[in-house]
Design goal:
The chain is an alpha+beta fold. It has one domain: Histidine kinase-like ATPase, C-terminal domain (Heat Shock Protein 90), CATH 3.30.565.10. A six-stranded antiparallel β-sheet has the order 4-5-3-2-1-6. A hairpin with a 2-residue loop joins β2 and β3. α1 packs antiparallel against α2 and α2 runs antiparallel to α3. The protein is globular and about 45 Å long. 31% of the residues are buried.
Length: 157
């Protein structure tokens, strides 16, 4: 079980695309199928957008963390914020679509809302043909610079 990617950024709309792309690059590199890759990108987009829109006041974005880990025969992606307690207090016409998509596209999905923020844990099956050795870092070189422009820190183990 190892962390493949850990990103910490401000929860801003301009962070959504680069976070989706970074996680998508990891998913592609480790050998997820095209349909899984589509699902991963959609799920990350929905979870990050939920945090950007609902976790913090518009004029005070706070921290957002995205982590990708190898866990047994699955890839776990976690999106966590430290914002308002109740992401769930949404108008009925806006509630649940993103989390509904996430739950349908993952092996397992857990959404936790607490006083210290919200956390979405998503699991995707790792194909038997996965071509990555999980004992070395995935990110190096130019990928870091792209995310660094967002004021984030990229950590790998």
């Amino acid at each position: 079980m190892g962390t493949l990617l850990l990103l910490r950024v401000d929860a801003r709309a301009e962070s959504i695309g680069p976070l989706r792309d970074a996680v998508g690059s990891i998913a592609s590199h480790i050998g997820l199928s095209d349909s899984q890759l589509y699902g991963v990108k959609l799920c990350v987009t929905e979870a990050v957008t939920n945090a950007v829109v609902h976790a913090y006041p518009d004029d005070e974005p706070g921290p957002l963390e995205v982590r990708v880990r190898h866990v047994a025969d699955e890839v776990e992606i976690v999106v966590a914020d430290h914002g308002r307690e109740a992401h769930g207090e949404l108008p009925h016409d806006h509630a649940g679509f993103g989390l509904g998509f996430i739950s349908r596209l993952t092996n397992r999905c857990t959404f936790t809302a607490a006083a210290h923020g919200a956390r979405v844990e998503m699991r995707f099956p790792l194909p038997r043909s996965a071509r990555y050795r999980f004992d070395r870092p995935l990110i190096s070189g130019p990928g870091r610079g792209h995310l660094a422009r967002l004021g984030s820190r990229t950590l790998t183990s």
